[in-house]
Specification:
Blueprint lengths: L1 H52 L8 H21 L4 H19 L13 H23 L5 H32 L3 H16 L6 H44 L6
Helix pairs in contact: 1-2, 2-3, 4-5, 5-6, 6-7
Amino acid sequence: MLFTIIIVLVVALVIIAVIMNAVQQHKERLAALKRAEFSKLRTLLEDTEDILLNSANVPMTKGIMQMLLKRIAVTLKAMLELEPNSKDLKKRIGETEARLNDTAAGDMVVEGLTMPDNDKQIIGMIQGIKKLRTILRSEHARGNIDTQTVVQEDRRLEMLQLRINVESQIKRGNQARAGNMLGSARQCYEKALTTLSNCAHADDYVTTRKSEVMTILEDIATELKEGNLRDRQKKAEQENNDLDVLFAPKRKW
C-alpha cells in the first residue's frame, strides 16, 4: 500500500513538473512574441517620427501631417497594450493627440522647396520622400486616408522628388560651367532634361525648366564649337610657326 502511494506521488510530481515546464515554456514564448511585437512597433514609430522630423526639409501638407500623427498615436496605443504600466507611453500618447488636435484646428501653409547645400542632404530628402509615399499607400490600404487625398499627395510628392533631382543636376551643371568644365556641365544639364522629358505630368515648372535647360545646352554647344575652332586655329598657327622656323634662311655667323 505504501509503495503504491509512493508510486502515485512520484507520478503526480512528474506530471506536475511537466505541466509547470509546459506553462513556463508557454510564458516564455508569449514573452518572446511580446518583445518581437514591441520591437516591431518601436521601429514603426521611429520611422514615422523620422519622416515627421524631415518636414523641416520636405514641405508637407496638413493632410500628410495628420496622417503621420494618427499613425504615431495608433502605434503608441498598440505599444501601451503590450506595456500597460508605461507612464512614458501614456504621456507621449497625450502629447501626440494634443498635437493632432492643434493641427486639425489650425491652418497650415506649405512652404516652397529649399535645396540643401550638399549631396548627402539631397539624398536624405529623396529617401524621405520615397518613405513618405510608401507610408501614404500603406495607410490608404488600412483605410486611414481617403483615395482622393492619396492621389493628390502622391502626385505632389512625385513632382517634389522630380524638382529635387532636376535642381540638383542644374546646380552641378552651373558649378561645372562656372569652372569652364563644359563637358561635365553638358552631362548634368542633359540628365536634367531627360528627367523633365520623362515626366508624365508636365506643369508650369516642368515646361519652364525644360525650355531653360534646352537653351543652356544650345549655348554650351555653341561655346564648345567656338572653343574647338579656337583650338584648331591655335594649332594651325603653331604649325605655321614651326614651318617658318624650319624653312627660315640660315644665318651665317
